[in-house]
Amino acid sequence: MAKFVLFPELAAEMAKSGEKQQDIAKLLNMDNSQVTRRLNGVTKWTEQDTRTICKHYGREYEELFKKNVKEEKENEILEN
Predict the structure, then answer these.
(1) CATH number of the domain that 48 lies in?
(2) Average pLDDT taken over every residue of the chain
(3) Are the beta carbons of 67 and 11 closer than 8 angstroms?
(4) Given CB 3.0 to 4.6 Å as the disulfide criterion, which of 34, 56, 62, 73 pairs with 30?
């Protein structure tokens, strides 16, 4: 089964720039585990987090943080 990606545009930007979760953690001055929880949707991104990431990539919030809702729902069905 393919890995579920909640924020595909953010993941794409990270891949294009060659950045990993550790790089985002450093950018946001937090632990890698905190970034993982945000990327997985366990913890919500703060407004400051999203502003910092958007500025870093030169993109708008709506472009980077649009959830992959269809895949999220399919994943929930498979887990139940």
Answers:
(1) 1.10.260.40
(2) 84
(3) no
(4) 34
